[in-house]
Amino acid sequence: MKRVECLAMILAGGQGSRLGELTKKIAKPAVPFGGKYRIIDFPLSNCSNSGIETVGVLTQYKPLELHTYLGTGEAWNLDRKNGGVYILPPYTREKGADWYKGTADAIYQNINFIETCDPQYVLVLSGDHIYTMDYSWMLEEHKMNKADATIGVIKVPLKEATRFGIMSTDKTGRITAFEEKPKKPQSNLASMGIYIFSWKILKEYLEKDSADNLSEHDFGKNIIPKMLADNARLFSYAFDGYWKDVGTIESLWQANMDLLKEKPSLDLGGTWRIYSANPSLPPHFVAPGAKIKNSLISGGAFVEGNVENSVIFPGVHVGKGTKIINSIIMPFSSIGENSVVEKAIIAQNCEITDNCHICSEDGSIVVIAEGKLVMAPDEENKQVG
Q1: Short-list 322, 288, 375, CA closest to 310
Q2: Cβ distance 22 to 370 under 8 Å?
Q3: What is the pTM (predicted TM-score) of this model?
Q4: Which candidate, 194, 193, 168, 192, places its Cα nearest to that of 179?
Q5: HEC secondary structure over 281-320
Q6: Over the stretch 300-319, which tens digit does the pLDDT of each residue have?
Q7: What is the distance between the alpha carbons of residues 183 and 306, in angstroms, rounded to a whole number?
Q8: Rounded distance, CA 276 to CA 42, Å?
């Protein structure tokens, strides 16, 4: 394989248990987002746009749909003879098959792959974040600082800082303290889960970490604190754009709703293109009498009812007299006639029959699992009878 300066490794094997019903059948990075995308499209597109042409995607939990979606990497201009997308699930070795035991262990298990690329730098990314970022600028700062590791950081509200790895820095940006999900955060400078490592240094730490039976084999909990304790050159890279960890139902719903704002913080129509593997479908159709207000309607959708402040994915059907409000309807789901769907996420391939009312009394987000059939109470009683 041709030597690369910077190799990207995308951690895409998480179960995504906090997304509940949405990840019962698919991995979190494969969850649909924004009307035509999947979450994995964002780090892949960022790599392609940043000139990083060799990308390993580390998969594990229910990977079939994600593997199928990735294909050869053509959708992201990453189908290359030298480089491209490589799918990297756990595999059987001399000591037997092991699941990836943590973020650092996932990279460690793929040392042989990394060595065939012979990179100077390794970019480690999460496969479940929504953002646009030029990694080449971060790499230039890493080189300029002669850093051993550079961590992408963003300021978060102090009340939310307990959810992240939090760090302190000096005036040069060098990291002086780091704590993973602190109970009492001393800063609001949060790790984005984006790391650039000088490969020779990282390899040493991964090998030592693998031999430590007490380690959780995690970058935030083990590798970064150990490097900091050893006085390694760790620097922060400040990011001030839109970034969201869509690891919960609430954050996924909000990120979709953010696209509907008058001036969305995440601009999907700009020069920084987000690529995706889209099905070939006809244009969407809005029937006479249907009403669309402040919504995204994707190709192949057939709308006969009213849609307000919602995201409608490809192949969705909305029946006559039906109202969709503040909701996300994922690909190829069908909503019957005279139904109401409000503040809900309907996963792909669902069927909601006529006269259904899907909303919560307390204002929380309702989630309908993939492939589920939802019937009005009267219809359910007829079925029982």
Answers
A1: 322
A2: yes
A3: 0.93
A4: 168
A5: CCCCEECCCCEEECCEECCCCEECCEEECCEECCCCEECC
A6: 999 999 999 999 999 999 99
A7: 45
A8: 9
